[in-house]
């Protein structure tokens, strides 16, 4: 089975988050760090569920995934504002999250246009 690009990108983000969490102070590692990791894992789970779900159910998984992405983005912002991790790594991760958001939006849009295609009249 082929892996979708959005899943690959989310996997890359997860690896970056693990690296940032591992190099952060202990007080942040086991609170905000673990929370961020769990948000990205939840996003990954919803994307995989959407990939394997029947068409009518895909949208609900993608909406949940979008929520997890938004939460992860807010936590990354906290990482930046509290100076928990390297600024460059945070910006790179935020950039990939923005790309995932665009991919997610495109996927949802393609599902909506497929299910609501108007009939053509001659």
TrEMBL record:
<protein>
    <recommendedName>
        <fullName>bAvd-like domain-containing protein</fullName>
    </recommendedName>
</protein>
<dbReference type="Pfam" id="PF22296">
    <property type="entry name" value="bAvd"/>
</dbReference>
<dbReference type="InterPro" id="IPR055360">
    <property type="entry name" value="bAvd"/>
</dbReference>
<feature type="domain" description="bAvd-like">
    <location>
        <begin position="7"/>
        <end position="110"/>
    </location>
</feature>
<dbReference type="InterPro" id="IPR036583">
    <property type="entry name" value="23S_rRNA_IVS_sf"/>
</dbReference>
